[in-house]
Write a structure and sequence with these properties.
GO terms for molecular function: transmembrane transporter activity. Belongs to the TRAP transporter small permease family. The complex comprises the extracytoplasmic solute receptor protein and the two transmembrane proteins. One of its GO terms (biological process) is C4-dicarboxylate transport. By secondary structure, this protein is mostly helical. The chain has one domain. The chain has helices at residues 4-11, 15-54, 63-85, 100-132, 146-166. Helix 2 (15-54) runs antiparallel to helix 3 (63-85). The protein starts with a helix and ends in an 18-residue tail after the last helix.
């Protein structure tokens, strides 16, 4: 089993890149657990709402809104994990016929363009959060901006992964292994 620090050194040659990858792996791990919590809370809320409605003959006022909120957060927190491993939609019918070096160059260029677009989305999301901050959710005394904060977090996290791809940095493992411990 390789210690975490040695895995970092194998992926990046400079201290700045090592720290960037280490911080990104920590962000990934935090996001991973936040997704698990969001999915668990959403499932519990929907189950409790179904039980309350069909067994007890009553309803939980905020269950629909809260379950929707946790669903939105789970989805937007998961998007950067897909970008990290390249499981996003892409059409590569033409690009696969190019030489390997050109394919790598185009992939890096597209990563830079994607990072720029995510940075723009981050900036726009900041404005949306500020704009919606005073508005409250209909059934809860919580700002409606929490939906837009999920987009903000997704854009920032995705931008970091796209920068790592553009720099040619391999991502560090961030999900726990099957035994529940840290990745080796």
């Amino acid at each position: 089993m390789t210690p975490a620090w040695h895995r970092l050194e194998a992926y990046a040659s400079s201290p700045g890149k090592r720290h960037f990858l280490h911080g990104l792996a920590l962000l990934d791990r935090t996001s991973y657990y936040a997704i698990l919590v969001a999915m668990g809370v959403m499932t519990t809320l929907v189950s409790a709402q179904v039980f309350a409605r069909y067994v007890l003959g009553t309803s939980i006022d905020s269950a629909d809104e809260l379950s929707r909120l946790f669903f939105v957060w789970a989805i937007f927190l998961a998007i950067p994990h897909g970008i990290k491993v390249g499981i996003h939609v892409g059409i590569d019918a033409l690009v696969t016929h190019f030489p390997e070096a050109l394919q790598r160059g185009l992939a890096r260029l597209m990563a830079w363009i994607g990072a720029a677009m995510m940075a723009a989305l981050f900036w726009i999301s900041l404005g949306a959060v500020a704009d919606k901050w005073q508005e409250l959710m209909p059934t809860l005394p919580i700002t409606a901006a929490v939906f837009y904060i999920a987009v903000l977090a997704c854009a920032g996290h995705s931008c970091l992964h796209l920068i790592a791809q553009a720099l040619g940095l391999e991502p560090l493992p961030s999900a726990p292994d099957r035994r529940g411990g840290t990745p080796s």
